[in-house]
Amino acid sequence: MFEFLQRGKEKFLLLEIAPKRTSGLLLGVDKDKNIRLEKFWEDFSFKKIHGDPLKALRKRQVIASANSDFVTNVIAPVSLERDRASAERPITLPELENLFAQAIGRMHAQHRGEASKHLDLDELDTVLVGARASDYKIDDHLVLNPLGFHGKNVSAILELTFAARTIFDDLKEFFKAREGFFFTNLPRAALFALSRVNQPPLGLLSIDGGRSFCFMLDKTAWGHSIKEAKFNWSLGGIFEAIARGLSVSPEITFAVYDKFLNNETSNHFSNSLERTLKPEKEKLFAELRKLNPRGRIYVHADAPLPFNYPVSVGRAALDELPTEEALRRFGFRLEEKNWPFSKSETLMRLAPFFEFYFDKSDSEINRRLRRRLHWLIQ
Known about the structure:
single chain; alpha/beta; six-stranded mixed beta sheet; 16 strands
């Protein structure tokens, strides 16, 4: 990816696919790693863009991400046995491609049902759209690249990405393109960014309207794992508690909550509201404790939560998203003029770009695996 920015300013189209709409960001990034927002579409659609603007966008590096309603990843170790005659020869790219293709076929058959249940879809509407191999070993010896080595066994970590067919159909020409397209699971991208600020175990608490999810990244004996848990808590409980306690309308409720968060109410009123909100906070902490999380759990919510960070919950600590620290560690600078997002939202919006920029999986092996996927799309 680094060569992209050596030519001067480059533009990247970031698409974020959510249940209600797809939003779009057109970013300009120069060789000094300054990020500038060129354009923002709250409701993006290629069908709404015509002529030269459409042609220009299609030439950009497209980075698409989807939330867990539409995409899920399966990560598992695989062991590839070479036959006796092959084991005496160096491993070649065609041989490795065939071995991985067979492993992907087995994993696809094994995990497609699991993915469809996770996405609440029929299996026919669950499509394998991505595959990548990493963490190679030859006869239990770690190697950066297995090509050219001798050995009886090649092991690796395979990650398969399954998506809803609606996403595949909308972006079919990009999924089938040889280059210029990168697709990821949004929570996975966020965890990737966060893992460069803090070592796993760590997590992402995502509170979106009436839903709450906790995504947890942890180390395993063979690499890493990502677990997802949905639990029974929503921001609505906060606002309902205020409305009941004060007997006010929803509009007044939001205004009161905003003033409370900004310390614009009297001490007496703030203390009273704290007592009103305490049961909802305790309910959130109780739900989190059931998941037994560890490490730092970063919070991304549609509205601020009614407590100061960090706050301990069992063996974990809830904290705000470290946007400035992430930018500093990645070496990027944000041109904040006309930037329409909060710091928390900024990191989530940019996480897929950061994953793409630092992606190390774009090897010849993985490029060949992506080209092999078309025969599994039915």
